[in-house]
Amino acid sequence: MIVRGVLLDVDGTLLDSNDAHATAWHRALHAEGVTVSLRQVRRLIGMGADQIFSQLGISEDDRRAKRVVETKDALFREELLPTLRPTRGARDLVAKLRAEQIATIVATSASEGDLHALLEAAQVADLIVGHVTSSDAEESKPEPDIIEAAVVRSGLPKEVLVMLGDTPYDVAAATRAGVSVVCVRCGGWDDASLHGASAIYDDPQAIHDGFARSLFGRG
């Protein structure tokens, strides 16, 4: 396989943000009287809001749902996002992909409004050209909609694309879309949870350091 494009997740993959998202969701849910543990919420991070509400048994039509999202977004943007840092090697890896003339397309469940701030925090905003967000899909990960939209955006056949993610929901979405997936552990998931990935690395730096031997460097 010769990889010509990489579909990049951001949260947990390029930005160490999964715990912050879980904290924001947990606080916003409790503000609306939804009793759920932080650990339960943390296991859902990587899905979009539609899927999280479904997992918690809350209808998106529930009046609380809109307030939860508004509170969660405000907490994350104003309080938590300024404290976040890139995952180890995030910029080095994206720069390496560009240097190797491998297309990079962001494929994230984040909103269009949040994406630029996330990429800035991950220190890769200037390296990214194409992206798809929750605005481009009817359903978020683990449904394949976002990955399928990213394949179209790339203009490349899925056989030469690889998804780079960090959660079981990235694995499920990419697999359902017929795209190979490589995962990093820095999002907080163990190897058993990431079953189905073609390869698993500690973080982007590990991929960068072994690039020639990785799926991305073959051919």
How would you characterize the overall build of this protein?
By secondary structure, the protein is an alpha/beta fold. The chain folds into 2 domains: 5-16 and 85-217, Rossmann fold; 18-83, Orthogonal Bundle (DNA polymerase, domain 1). Helix content is 41%, strand content 11%. It has helices at 18-31, 38-42, 49-55, 63-80, 90-99, 112-121, 145-154, 168-177, 204-209; strands spanning 5-8, 103-107, 130-132, 161-165, 180-184, 199-201. Strands 3-2-1-4-5-6 form a 6-stranded parallel sheet, sandwiched between helices. It is globular.
Summary?
The protein is an alpha/beta fold.
List keywords for this structure.
alpha/beta, Rossmann fold, 219 residues, 6 strands, DNA polymerase, domain 1, 41% helix, globular
